[in-house]
Amino acid sequence: MTPAAARPTGPGRFAAISKAEPFRSAEEAWFWTMSALIARQEGARIVAGRGAVVRPCEPDDVVKCLDRLYRQRRVDLSHARILRIWGERGERPSANHPRERHDHRLWTEALDRLEWPLRIKGIVAGELTSPAASAGGTVVSLDAARS
To answer: CB–CB of 126/78 below 8 Å?
Structure first.
């Protein structure tokens, strides 16, 4: 019988999660994601917990949230295209430039819709209020609705 391989000791990769700093907004998370994806495409190896700031996710987690919104038909390909183009540039489209107004509208819509799923996952910091409540709607519990 061969001896079992020794397991490495010390903090695991999940120990850094408690020290992770969430993003302030979906836009900040998106720019970080695009930077990481561009770096990966250029050959960099993305390793969790090795950046200047430990983040609570991988770049693919943000992309998966966007993909889920697409599958739910909350965003469409034009939203994703604008996020990719401006994310690669590292800047947001300006509402003050006539050529960028349409892009700005799609950019804002996409990031507004992406904000909630990222908050639920702890990727973006902030209070967990439902999108309906923040839009002036009312959240009713099912028990109260039946009475």
So the answer is: no
Distant-in-sequence, close-in-space partners of 50: CB < 8 Å, separation ≥ 6: none
- C-alpha span between 27 and 86 (Å, rounded): 11
SS3 142: helix
Backbone angles phi, psi at 41, to 5 degrees: -65, -30
Query: Within 10 A of 2 (CB to CB), how many other CB atoms are there?
Result: 4
Selection from 45, 53, 75 nearest residue 63 by Cα: 75
- CA–CA dist 74, 51 (Å, integer): 32
Instruction: For residue 125, give Cα distances in angstroms to 34, 36, 53, 141.
Output: 19, 20, 15, 25
pTM over 0.90: no
Question: What is the per-residue pLDDT across 14-70, written as a single tens digit (0 to 9) for each?
Answer: 545 567 899 999 999 999 999 999 998 887 666 655 667 788 899 999 999 999 999
